[in-house]
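User: Show me a protein chain along with its predicted structure.
Assistant: Here is one chain, sequence first, then structure tokens.
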Amino acid sequence: MTGAGPLFLSERRGQRNDNGIPYTQLSFFRNPEETSEGGIGEDARAVAVLPFSELSALRSWRYLSLYLSQEAFGNPMIVKPGKEMATMTTMMASAVGKVSTATAARTSLQTPNPVLPRAFPHVKLSQSLEGMKLPSLRQSKKAPGRRGMARMSVSLSTESSTSDTLFADYKPSTAFLFPGQGAQAVGMGKDAANIPAAAALFAKANEVLGYDLLDICINGPKEKLDSTVISQPAIYVASLAAVEALRAQEGGQAILDSVDVTCGLSLGEYTALAFAGAFSFEDGLKLVKLRGEAMQAAADATPSAMCSIIGLDSEKVAALCEAANEEVSNDEKVQIANFLCPGNYAVSGGVKGIEAVEAKAKSFKARMTVRLAVAGAFHTRFMSPAVSKLEAALAETEIRTPKIPVISNVDGQPHSDPATIKQILAKQVTSPVLWENSLKTLLDRGLQNSYELGPGKVIAGILKRISKTAPIENISV
């Protein structure tokens, strides 16, 4: 940008957009000495006006600053808590001459007075950030203030931080939760044909998969839909079709804009990453297809099984597994594979190990055990043959920094570094799913609203077991 001195920011709260949604208007000005007591003087040029929904302000600040710093300096800068205005001022001062609107995001600015739209496309903001370091920022002295003005500038520090910490301090308010294998049912997707965007996803899926996925979803047969190689792509596509169904509803886009965190159960993590813009719908579907095939092949190679233990806490289920393991060989040993919710934990392992768990469960005062209709011992060492295949596919897949936090099944944390995300996804098939921990963390951090996107109501049932008062709505097609 040309012109001397820093830009200064005027923050006006309590504004409402055309749909009545409150937002904070952030205006960046040059020549602040030309302001009047009643507001901004005519000679103080407004170089940008940024209206954002107050519900998603922190996310917007983060990604807009990352995007602008990428455009201006060739590498992104992370927004630190409490320094959002200072960071944004620096970003705008450096890059306002390069970015105008969403459609001109990659072109030079032709007008000195750009206005970014209210619905800024967060999904596009961090597509080129992979592998770059994030310099931190330090705040300089505030400039003398005028009434109604927040004035500050910042300077760059050479200190670097890791690129996987972007979401370390995330504060969730609205979450999209995506189901995993087992949520499928014949008849799902029956409403997709009535929603053009949802129908388009199934049409794209047919091209990628080479068969009519929607026909299997609607008509079955059940045995075919329940197979790992079919059910995983089916749930992935049906869940993202549910997103389009919500978007098509009155007020649906406003809900989508308010989502600031997402996660998915096992397979659902891929759906969450696709929703968050980490990879395209097609690339995600190719990964899910390969994942299902690789997991099925691993299950076929060594007989194994899974069962749910109902009515025990996780410590007692772990003790039950230890007792069962004392009676079987190392090749048949079991472990907790899915930490779902209090009183419901899935155990995986060799067939004899699972049989031993079922035989001993009543002596541990379990209410019941339920053998799961899956191909094998998911999320254990039994899936190790699938890892190398996934690693190879992930290495060839473009993965970007997600636009919002995506909570990992492996460690219950959000990751922003694409290379780390690839490692996590490869590791996921042999690691226990920390779903209970993930949901509890979201609630502890202030989650207020949740939506289950996809077939069935498994996620809603799990969330209610963790918190009876947590609101959740199911959207499906």
